[in-house]
Sequence to fold (246 residues):
Amino acid sequence: MDFLKANFKSLIITFSVIITGYILGNSYLSKGKADPTISVTGLGETTFDSDLIVWRANFSRKNITLKEAYSELNADLKKVKEYLSKKGIDSKDIVFEAAAIQKEYSNEYDENGNIRSSIFSGYVLTQSMKVQSKNVNIIEKTSREVSELIDAGIELNSDAPEYYYTKLAALKLSMIEQATKDAYNRAIKIAENGGGSLGDMKSADMGVFQITAENSSEDFEWGGSFNTSSKRKTANITMRLKYEID
Fold:
């Protein structure tokens, strides 16, 4: 007992050295051994049609007096509303923004190309509008036929329609399920081909959600792409799973 008391600290240090050596020895022996896990990537992909369209356009009038410019713009606005109504577009789907006012000037230059004077040439009033609707085909068709308004004396500047999908949340969940199942099936096949069996899943990582035009060569973006120029789209997502191998 006296021996233990006198040499307690030395015995503790010796015991610690033995344990440490055992742990390091096991670590060295296991170094380089294959990790009994497998990592696989599954793909979830689907093609769908957009169910929401957004179309923007604008038209302008210019006059030397602000009152006349407003009068002419309001007359055009009435014609545009009538035209859209005849095309079957619901008024609740149309938003007309406040008219933008801009003063324009004509410049006179000297022989050196410097501005000599600026003369006020009139007010330019621009009316912008936005159509947002689930009647995708009607809006799409109308956006392509607005040149008909030229006959009414209105030069409408039309943007290309933008296409969206309102059920992305449900679509994404379905694709995650599809990608997970695809990865699982791949893992089973690889494990079987290697003479083992699939064990428990250790981790799962979801890739970036990508939406591109159908059959396009669009590049995927690091943060995820979201195509709005095509009515028919293809969405895909990847799932990376890691399994133990028994």
